[in-house]
Amino acid sequence: SRYFTINDFPQGTPGRELFELRETELPALAEGEVRIRNTWLSVDPYMRGRMSGVKTYIDPFVLGEPLEGAAVGEVIESRDARLSVGDRVRHMAGWRDIAQLPGDQVEPLPGIDVPEQAYLGVLGMPGMTAWTGLNRVAEMQAGDNVLVSAASGAVGSLAVQLAKARGGTVVGIAGSPEKLAWLESHGIEAVSYRDRDAGQLTEALQAACPEGFDIYYENVGGICLEAALNTLRTGGRIAVCGMITRYNAEGPTPGPGNLAMVLIRRLRMQGFIVFDHWADYPRFLDEVGPLVASGEIDYAETIEEGLERTPEAFLALFEGANTGKMLVRL
Ligand code: NDP
């Protein structure tokens, strides 16, 4: 098995040299274990937190050990009666080509008619996150005007479509012309944050939705949060899903200068972690799975080829190189 590890907890933006590709001979399967040939690996922004050496809501990676992350693959050997050779499964032993782990940590893929990598994106953890943030945290109602940052990413691209289907004005903030075009082609008003300060972004958002937003789906922080606070209506809700602007920060980052808007506009701001809501995953799949299978909900993917490219795929998330879900195909 070939796997990636890190030997140090980086400060600031990690470089490619942080990641070391190693090889190991796997032992024979123990009773209850399965061996899986991974076909798709997920890289996700939260992994940066696991490289910081401190426990947040999840333990840090163990230095020198294989990194972890969501992956799908095919069972190639099994000593678990519930799993057979050829089964397509999802599990957390990513960042490697061959995974070996107890069968009870492996989940057969649901039987919805979608490509298997969709279970790492639109029908996996990121999709579940979008659905949870809108429905459970922001308590979206039909007709709500919704603002989403990192709107063409894995989470954001589902959030904007779910919001749009409920009838309000939906505005997405994204970085590049291609991403803005992707949003516009899905009926979303698209606004760039590039080369703008918080005041200019506020003006662009006001132009896109003059009556103001009921909900801000927060993925980014920084000027996006500041501009959102200026453009929420009284009683608005902020679902704090992510704050990617600060994941590579080396020290404390300043908060928005207009936080008093929370008071003035009686806003509710609530963070959430999707794992706390995982009991709802079957309900999410029932609701969103058929819409993805029928094409009513679209999704995009950005794919790196080969295990060797996994660090590049991960690092590119922080450069905004992905439209939709960032994946590695093995
Ligand atoms: P994305 O697919 O959205 O990829 C990250 C995107 O973030 C980039 O493509 C880029 O888009 C944007 N970005 C990166 N750096 C910056 C920056 N400095 N300023 C502004 N935008 C930036 O990732 P995911 O969909 O997987 O995750 C989105 C967010 O959701 C993340 O913050 C993540 O941590 C969070 N999350 C939270 C979960 C939870 O349980 N709370 C679960 C899953 C994800 P662009 O080019 O448009 O700037």
Automatic annotation (TrEMBL):
Keywords: Oxidoreductase. Residues 15-328 form the Enoyl reductase (ER) domain. InterPro entries: ADH-like_C, ADH_N_2, ER, GroES-like_sf, MDR_fam, NAD(P)-bd_dom_sf. Pfam families: ADH_N_2 (PF16884), ADH_zinc_N (PF00107). It comes from the Bacteria. This is NADP-dependent oxidoreductase. It comes from Halomonas mongoliensis.
